[in-house]
Amino acid sequence: MSRVYDRVAYIGLGLIASSMIHAGRRAGLQGEIVGTARSAETRAIAAEDGLCDVVTETAAEAVKDADLVVLCVPVGAMGAVAEEIGPHLKPGCTVSDVGSVKRAVIEAVKPHLPEGVHFIPAHPLAGTEHSGPRSGFAELFENRYTLIVPEGDTDPQALARLERFWAGMGAHVELMEPEHHDLVLMVTSHAPHLIAYTMVGVADDLRRVTDSEVIKYSAAGFRDFTRIAASDPTMWRDVFLNNREATMEILGRFIEELMRLQRAIRKGDGDLLHEYFTRTRAIRRGIIQAGQDTSAPDFGRGHGQGQSKG
Ligand SMILES: NC(=O)c1ccc[n+]([C@@H]2O[C@H](COP(=O)([O-])OP(=O)(O)OC[C@H]3O[C@@H](n4cnc5c(N)ncnc54)[C@H](O)[C@@H]3O)[C@@H](O)[C@H]2O)c1
Ligand SMILES: O=C(O)C(=O)C[C@]1(C(=O)O)C=C[C@@H](O)C=C1
């Protein structure tokens, strides 16, 4: 794979940025790698580990002369970062992001970017519950989708270049409308996180009743929930605050379904439960057949030394 961008600036050096750096470096997609992070500790780690070729103190310095700037901060911080870098961007460069929500990020970032800069939002559908500059690994995006969410007037060459960059990191690239993205991701990613947070919260509330048995006898189902519920609190706070409409829509439906099952259990309606669980089982099998299952025992774990989020 040949070089796609001569100079790439990463703003925010956590799981996603560090994975992009490793994946891009392995495939020779990027020339000089410049990075910056809000905390001095993260910047020091990035310099010490050689994660970036250049580590700058500010985002404004980092984007100077960059051909691609990738915003890798929590969704709620994207607007402030865009405001800071706007006046320092190289004309003709591409600004992208990796935020888990798209419409709110577009609204927050776009007003701060000057004419002549290509803004092309993106979202890799890959992650782990870990965070920080040491949590990334080159394989994170392999065989996973990255959704690119371009506006109608996006320059085709700039778009093709960003697509090549993501494909070079092993991702399957697809294009999607921002509103559609936010609804689909609410179902496939955001709501499951909210449910996991809630379930682990319930277990925690019950701790006094069950002593520490919830932890001791934790079965596979609950363990999977605790992994998801260990994800970064800032990232997920921002996701829900910035995707409120879809959250309300899907949460409403979820509560209705939960009450339907509650009623069936109360009434002893085994047929309804059996039919329901048969339908959901088919969905799981469909995902596996489509090659989308990523729950193999070691997927995304044992990589890097990132902190467990939370
Ligand atoms: N973790 C995932 O599973 C995942 C997957 C896909 C996309 N994303 C998205 O990628 C982005 C980054 O997530 P991550 O998992 O790499 O996070 P992370 O916590 O590992 O890293 C975030 C980085 O942003 C910096 N930061 C935090 N608050 C900031 C602020 N207010 N101003 C400036 N910098 C700030 C942190 O110092 C850190 O360097 C988020 O928008 C998230 O929604 C995450
Ligand atoms: O595997 C995980 O830990 C994740 O939660 C990753 C996950 C997801 O829900 O699949 C989380 C947020 C994203 O924006 C994209 C991917």
TrEMBL record:
Residues 6-295 form the Prephenate/arogenate dehydrogenase domain. One of its GO terms (biological process) is tyrosine biosynthetic process. SUPFAM superfamilies: 6-phosphogluconate dehydrogenase C-terminal domain-like, NAD(P)-binding Rossmann-fold domains. Its EC number is 1.3.1.12. It catalyses: prephenate + NAD(+) = 3-(4-hydroxyphenyl)pyruvate + CO2 + NADH. Pathway: Amino-acid biosynthesis; L-tyrosine biosynthesis; (4-hydroxyphenyl)pyruvate from prephenate (NAD(+) route): step 1/1. Keywords: Amino-acid biosynthesis, Aromatic amino acid biosynthesis, NAD, Oxidoreductase, Tyrosine biosynthesis. It is an enzyme of class 1 (oxidoreductase). It comes from the Bacteria. GO terms for molecular function: NAD+ binding; prephenate dehydrogenase (NAD+) activity; prephenate dehydrogenase (NADP+) activity. Belongs to the prephenate/arogenate dehydrogenase family. This is prephenate dehydrogenase. It comes from Tropicimonas sediminicola.
